[in-house]
Amino acid sequence: TDKAKESAAIAAVDEHINANVHIIGIGSGSTIVPAVKKIAEMVKKDKLDLICVPTSLQARELILSNGLKLGSLIEYQELDLAIDGADEVDEQFNCIKGGGGCQTQEKLVAICAKKFIVVADEKKWSKNLGDQWKKGIPIEVLPIAYKITKKEIEKQLGGEVVVREGTEKLGPVLTDQANFILDWKFDSSKVSNWSDINTKLKLIPGVVETGLFINMISKAYFGNSEGKVQLLV
Ligand code: DER
């Protein structure tokens, strides 16, 4: 719910945004929206010196429309903090992202940040990855390699790979990097080592980036419809 997302977003901003933080990564999706609004209020009130590095064209627009200063990964590779949403997080901090198709730039921002903070509705918190997220693991691939990668993933790891099609556009969705997205659906209940799965995926020629964020989260804030926030640290 919006209340759940808002409470998680504001709890994270209240805890991590202050005068000692100068360069932050801004995630993609809907939960980051109340976070950015809160950040903009704080910058204005406390005259904070803050530069925001986006994880997508959507994040870039969110930064600009909230009057925040825009930076890029070309200028900044050491971020004090990154705040982003997630599609699912398990208790070992394994995380699926990419529901919005932005995982490549999101992961780059996340690895440049001293702390990677996730904000989400508590519905995203699962015992095991795949318990709730049923749309598959998003994998960004080079357009020329979409059939090669589909075949190789299904051969090596099983399951079924589907190219993500546009809704208001015929044909495959293009990412901000002008690549395709494969959504890989499989029985994740049997997976014991997500890091191993991620490594195998990344080694397949044509794969650009996966939506598996393994052991990257510093702290996760999960909100519920009453506005209560639980932490996973
Ligand atoms: O696509 C992404 O990685 C987004 O961050 C997504 O996972 C979170 O989107 P939401 O905040 O709208 O749930």
Automatic annotation (TrEMBL):
It comes from Adineta steineri. Belongs to the ribose 5-phosphate isomerase family. The chain holds residues 3 to 235 of 572 of the full protein. Signal peptide: none annotated. This is ribose-5-phosphate isomerase. It comes from the Eukaryota.
